[in-house]
User: What shape does this take?
Amino acid sequence: MGQVDYRIVAEQNEYRPCEVLGVKALFHRYIEDTKILIKSQVVTPARIDTEMGQRCLKMIREDSIIPRGFDIEKLSNTLALVEFEDGTVQKVDPTVVKFLDTKEKMEENEQPK
Assistant: This one.
């Protein structure tokens, strides 16, 4: 008896019907969302609006230079890109997405090729 491949593969441009917190939607794809966290021992939040604080932020953003006393931390997480019936598109946490076609997709995968 062969092993069953339980991976669900979406063809290109195939949108899966789903619900997001009970609201009907179409799942487009997963995306990675990345944010940069700038930590500083030099520029505190109270001093960020000073000339020095603005110069330091400009160096980081525009010149990709990290001044002494700064640490950069990259925060990444996976989100689901979904489209609602009214046409709006949102990034949502994947744990709130419930696919409505899972049974059919799994049955397709179980059929011999």
Summary: Residues 14 and 65 are 42 Å apart (CA to CA). The chain has a mean pLDDT of 80. Helices lie at 51-63, 102-110.
